[in-house]
Amino acid sequence: MKTLADAFHHTLKDVYYAENALTKALPKVAAAAKSAELKKAVEHHLAETKEQISILGKVFASIGAKPEGEKCDAIEGLIKETEGLIKGASGVALDAALVAAAQAVEHYEIARYGTLREWAKVLGHSEAHDMLSQILDMEKAANAKLTSMAVESVNAAA
């Protein structure tokens, strides 16, 4: 990468890979969740993730590129960590651990989408900027929902 445009395209491919990887990981998280509320939240986020992949396809199109992923080591690590929690935690502690793991993913995505949105603005990709802002808002809302769930029910139950 030598230019901001290169970094933008690389990071866009990174999040595209990450979102696709999450569509495979989230059903496992939903299956492991003990709380019906957490299970429902994870299933809802899976639907949102699929919508975000569709939006990312439009972001790629808006910059004249084809949608493609590039391996994202960060998301692979977060997924591996979550799989370890599923194997190692049990009972009500499992739900608290799953919420924490989900928030780690959300925080990563918030950081990436925030960066991409601002780079799109600098690069003059106003349509991409708007779509990335939409995804960023979705990720922030998902994080807020997880925080609320943790504070109001999951952590106290654990």
Task: Summarize the structure in short.
It is built from five helices and no strands.
Layout: helices, strands, pairs:
Elements: H1 4-32, H2 36-62, H3 73-88, H4 91-122, H5 126-157
Helix pairs in contact: 1-2, 1-3, 1-4, 2-5, 3-4, 4-5
Give your account of this protein's structure.
By secondary structure, the protein is an all-alpha fold. The protein has a single domain (4-157), classed as Ferritin, CATH 1.20.1260. It is 86% helix and 0% strand. It has helices spanning 4-32, 36-62, 73-88, 91-122, 126-157.
Largest sheet: none
CATH architecture: Up-down Bundle
CATH homolog superfamily: Ferritin, core subunit, four-helix bundle
DSSP summary, beta strand count:
0
Distance between the termini: 46 Å
Note the total helix count: 5
CATH fold descriptor: Ferritin
CATH class label: Mainly Alpha
The domain tally reads 1
**Backbone structural class:** mainly alpha
Beta-strand content = under 5%
Instruction: Catalogue the unreliable spans.
Output: none
Radius of gyration: 16 Å
What's the helical proportion of residues? Answer: over 70%
**Element order: H for helix, E for strand:** HHHHH
Question: What is the residue-mean pLDDT, rounded to a whole number?
Answer: 94
**Coarse shape:** elongated
Notable characteristics:
single chain, 158 residues, mainly alpha, Ferritin, 86% helix
